[in-house]
Amino acid sequence: MIRVGAVNIDTSHPLGFGEVMERDNRARYVAVYNDSFRDHGEVEGFIRRFGLERRCDTLEELAEAQEVTVWKCHPHGSMSMHIWAPELHFLDGKWYLYFAAGTREDKWKIRPYVLECTGEDPLTAPWKEHGKMQCAAEDSFSFRSFSLDATIFENKGERYYVWAEKVGVGKQISNLYIAQMETPWRLKTVQVLLTTPDYDWERVGFWVNEGPAVIRHGGKIFLTYSASETGAAYCMGMLTAEEDADLLDPLSWKKERWPVLESSPEKGIYGPGHNSFTTDSEGNDIMVYHARTEKDIEGDPLYNPNRHAMLMRLRWGEDGRPVFSFDS
Amino acid sequence: MIRVGAVNIDTSHPLGFGEVMERDNRARYVAVYNDSFRDHGEVEGFIRRFGLERRCDTLEELAEAQEVTVWKCHPHGSMSMHIWAPELHFLDGKWYLYFAAGTREDKWKIRPYVLECTGEDPLTAPWKEHGKMQCAAEDSFSFRSFSLDATIFENKGERYYVWAEKVGVGKQISNLYIAQMETPWRLKTVQVLLTTPDYDWERVGFWVNEGPAVIRHGGKIFLTYSASETGAAYCMGMLTAEEDADLLDPLSWKKERWPVLESSPEKGIYGPGHNSFTTDSEGNDIMVYHARTEKDIEGDPLYNPNRHAMLMRLRWGEDGRPVFSFDS
Fold first, then answer.
1. How far does A158 lie from chain B, in Å, by closest CA?
2. What are the pLDDT digits (tens) for A288-307?
3. Residue A253: per-residue pLDDT
4. Domain A1-132, CATH number (from 3.40.50.720, 3.90.226.10, 1.10.569.10, 2.115.10.20)
5. Which of A36, B4, B176, B182 is at 20 to 30 A from A287, Cα to Cα?
6. Which whole-number Å values give the CA distances from B279 to A21, A53, A133, B54, B58, in the listed order?
7. B256 at the A interface (CB within 8 A)?
């Protein structure tokens, strides 16, 4: 689960983050995001990305907080292009930064990687590379193809890694998988398929399930994810499990038939997705997500930079389920 | 659904079929099976296979009934090797023979094919080739990789095609998919994932779900399948759906956590699987399946010929579920 104090932002337009700031919080926040769309001067426009962090006392201040570069992409080879979906987690007393990256030589050869902070302060201490995330010894399948968007959560003393990986020949399908973790950089168990794009709303443009994020409430584990291509059709689905269940058993996870959050033309918000969860200083659950303010997108949605980071106060229904509403 | 009168046998040892015949039936049966293991004289031993049929008045007589060759594999190119998993279906007033085949040039390039009988009697009328099974126009995924074991059933006026197809790069995973059919040789809808090997018992040797077969009872649709490599670990799993449910919605299908039929050392039966369903002349449900009588197998289980066709009388529990028992 996203820890209090860490905000994981997936956005290609971090300056947009402040646009929806409206709450006065008192927590101390560190946000991690990539910075590709500020470097248009680079070859091919989107090659150079950086892991960056900001620290501030309120979520509102995050947009204007000091930026620190903690890691730069490699000039070539692994981790040299498409530096995507960074997440910051505090595990076993250390900060870890999970992200996905391709290579300049093969930009779609995207795999998950791990950085570890060598000191206590993630903004000042050096970060070391752990290389590619390692699957279990007996796992012949994980991280062999396009794989990204890892998130981490804990339950009943076990730590879980959830990620998206594509299958298929030719055009591919992006599924979500889960496994238990042995260490912050190695899995203990083989992959288990959590969800594949089953429905029309998960199959617009591309068949995609990606961007998993976990929040717990009332003995339940809610796992949200994003579906379809990253334009106006991009939306959020959800799986639910009991925390006492075997989380490596797909039967423990109930998938929603319909999206839990999607575009709202009335609000002028399009393609909400790739969210994470945090809390404000008063303990309210906050969802950080990205969305666009234009329905029509110039060029490939993947490379259109107008994905704004937004915040939503998450409320809980009487049935114990999260209520995702742009009015919150 | 397998129609009364047609017995679909997956076995590499058709002579074994009679060994377990123990019932006196009066129906007229036609069985289809491949004949690879009788042609050891051929190059590479397993290249030449034939679609064959037998007709008789009782299931017991099938083992000794007249054999008729209805189709021969091609000398090269598509349908020239690994002629597998034939099934006979009577659709829209005609007989169709569904099977999977590879090529001599690439023996693992296995895809599903369709034959249509041009006359009323499947034993005497010529069969014509419909070529490879066609997916829906908007389907970018189906039949692009190793795909086989198709079966067909009908529900509420729609016809469904269920098949196994592998995904992944390098070592692959065999899943089961479902789609509605437009014609006997073309699908109407894009693929929907029904089941993937989630559990240890589906992951022995290879991660495999294959050999789907459907039987209906009490308003429910039971879809059995086979899991793991074809040795002693080979076993049967099951999905269940209500016949009123949307069968293209994976949420409509409930998967069993454990196998519904597996090896029985006490009975000396190993690796039961790749079943189909028929009825005897008294209307009793009969399951036709294959299994081995040896626990240890010489060489690659896939090519070991000792898979015997067997029969099991299927009984129904008070809960409306099928009871799979070697004692039946």
1. 19
2. 888 888 888 888 777 776 77
3. 98
4. 2.115.10.20
5. A36
6. 68, 68, 53, 16, 11
7. no
